[in-house]
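== Item description ==
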Amino acid sequence: MPLHKPYLRRLFLLLTFILCAGISAYAQKNREQLEREKSENQSKIREIQSILKQTSSQKNVNLGQLKALNQQINTYKKQIDLLSDDLELLDKELKVLEKKRQALDSSLNKLKKEYGHMIYEASKRNVYFNQLIFLFSSGTFNQFVLRYKYLKQYTEARQGQVKEIEILQAQVVAERQRITSKKNQQKTVLDTRLTENTKLEGLKVKQNEVIQELSQKEVELRNQIAENKRATDLLEANIRRIAERERRERLERERKEREEREARRKAERERIARENAEREKKGEAAVVETPKEEEPVISSGMSEEETTLASSFTASQARLPWPVKGFVSGHFGQRPHAVLKGVMVDNLGVDIQTTAGESVRSVYDGVVLDVTEMPGMGNVVAIQHGNYMTIYAKMNGVTVRAGQKVKARENIGRVATDSDGTSELQFQIWKNTSRLNPENWLIHR
């Protein structure tokens, strides 16, 4: 059976809308993701701006200011890239809207043409008179009823076409409005990108000025590196002392548990021997018993609670919360100095630069092993998580004590601010006596 034109038109429209809706839904998903990334990066820009303002308030330039500038430049570069992605996505969205509008325009024009042709044909004759002749020329009553139904359907079809035209016209207007709105949005994004580019160039100029000024303080910077090295070595020695103390305590616990286990086995053997001796005196047969085997001693020397905690900590890799707000200003391991060429600096963990007085939080459940004050490192807190340790240095206002149990995200003190106005937490993760890269453990930001 051949398909009628109205059916074909509706089928074409349906397929067009399904295609456009699918593309639109995909674009919407990308749009939501892009807007979320832009918002998150904008929050970072504001956060770093606050940190930069603090370090820039000092009379003399300092490394903290340079680190904040470097980070701010990186966030502005990312924001510009995201805005470029936004423009590209807007362009795709406009093309989708334009295709949809063209499809609607085409369908509307065809519908108007068909309706116009119908009206023209009807106007060439007296429609009402012809309808009466058509009805009353029926041979039978049944034929009369059928012709009446046909005329009624014909009238309804014309009315339906009018409604279709009105709906399509409204849709065309709506799509044109969406296109206009999208073009305005595109212009706004383009203007924003130009503004961000201007800010970026200004930051780069400031960055070069700070680097040049710091380069003239080579002696001071080298002395600072030496002081940091002494403080770092002292901190590492203290951490290894704590780790060695914990190792000895675990070995001692393991030794005691082994001795207690052996004592229980010996007592059980002696009990069996006594009972058999008494049986022999009474002339009864000896009963052969074997002492019950106990669970083997845990080789790590950790308690069941510590073993469970260590296991759950291991499973939390790349999902640990940050101990403080801010950005990584010093990465793990050996890195080139920010200013002095050919000079390498070693970091036992990561430095996280933040604002003055920012709260420091434990990244996981654990027990405070040690709280001490050290030259160049301020207050240092060590928290045990089974056979793992997290270290929080360059703090003041510590609110925990050795032996205290803490929960994840619990406040343990505040970040200290040095004489240059830089507030920076030194954060480390150790497993037994091996140091780990904290950036592999903290949740990505």
